[in-house]
Amino acid sequence: MNLKPRLLLLAGTTVLYSAVAYRGLDNKVLLSGEHVFVTTEFTVVEMCRILTTKRGLEGSEALELVESMPVLVASHDFVRGRWDEADGLISKRDKSDIPLVALALTIDGHDGICSTDKDFDVVRGRFKVWKTRELLKA
Amino acid sequence: MHCIYVLSMGSKLLLNVPEKDLERIEALVNAGEYATKSEFIRFAVKQLLYSEQRIGKLESATSRLQNQTKSRKQVEKEIEWAKAGTRKTL
After folding, report:
1. Interface test with A, best of B21, B50, B60, B65 (most A CBs within 10 A)
2. Residues of chain B contacting residue A32, judged by C-beta atoms under 8 Å apart
3. Average pLDDT for residues A69-76, to the nearest whole number?
4. What is the DSSP letter of A126?
5. Is-contact A115 A129, C-beta < 8 A?
6. Residue A42: closest CA among A90, A95, A101, A96
7. Which domain holds residue B67?
8. Is B79:A19 a contact under the CB 8 Å cutoff?
9. Coarse DSSP helix, strand, coil percentages of chain B, rounded to the nearest 5 percent
């Protein structure tokens, strides 16, 4: 029996799209089932946009793929309350990361953000930011 | 080890369940979460089959996608393209 503690991690398009499109560490970690991942609706939209426009999938196929990922999706309404705070923290680095930071501010007791994106360095004081490689050892 | 019979539309399954698990199942049944121990097992089996089916679909879709991928750089470019779209929207 696997007694490893599960981490509750927040992830965006960088990690989740890599996990489905590239045979690498992101893929291993996501499909290992050892951690619980949460993302936002923005990531779902971004992934569907890539899958349909860049990879030629039908809209329904793209959505089916995203929905079959072992990831919980938080609605925009869920993160709305912390949007302005997240905007203040990350928008100077990358506006597109606001939803994920808002999610990190909204969910209590999560174990951090999973991202290889350097833009998240500015929130390292607030949240633990995990690199995928670190999760394999966690 | 304890045995539980699960009845479902004429089929019967005999399961050996560790005592600790059985105690937890009984506690859930007593708390009214499930009508019977069999109902709990049927629900668990359904959940697991659904999750296996979902993982199967995901694995075949990701495998197709990964076969199309020429390099890590391509994936990074696609992500950057999508994020640029979000930046515009916000």
Report:
1. B65
2. none
3. 94
4. T
5. yes
6. A96
7. 2-89
8. no
9. 70, 15, 15
Residues in chain A: 138
Q: Which domains can be identified in chain A, with CATH numbers?
A: 8-137 (3.40.50.1010)
- What radius of gyration do chain A's Cα atoms show? 15
- Of A23, A42, A54, nearest to B66 by CB-CB distance is A23
- CA–CA separation, A75 vs A100, rounded Å? 11
**How many residues are there in chain B?**
90
Task: Dump pLDDT digits (tens) for A7-53.
Answer: 999 999 999 999 999 998 988 888 888 899 999 999 999 999 999 99
Task: Provide the domain count of chain B.
Answer: 1
Enter the DSSP assignment of A7. Answer: P
Q: Which residues pair with A71 in a beta bridge?
A: A37
Tokens representing residue A13 in the block: 């398009």
Burial of residue B47, with CB atoms counted within 10 A of its CB: 0-12 exposed, 13-18 middle, 19 or more buried? exposed
- Distance, in Å, from the CA atom of A57 to the CA atom of B59, rounded to the nearest integer, reads 16
Put simply, whether the predicted model's pTM sits higher than 0.90 gets the answer: no
Of A8, A7, A10, the C-alpha closest to A123 is A10
Q: How far apart are CA A15 and CA A34, in angstroms?
A: 16
Whether ipTM tops 0.95, in short, is no
Give how far B47 is from chain A: nearest CA, Å. Answer: 14
What is the three-class DSSP state of A45?
helix
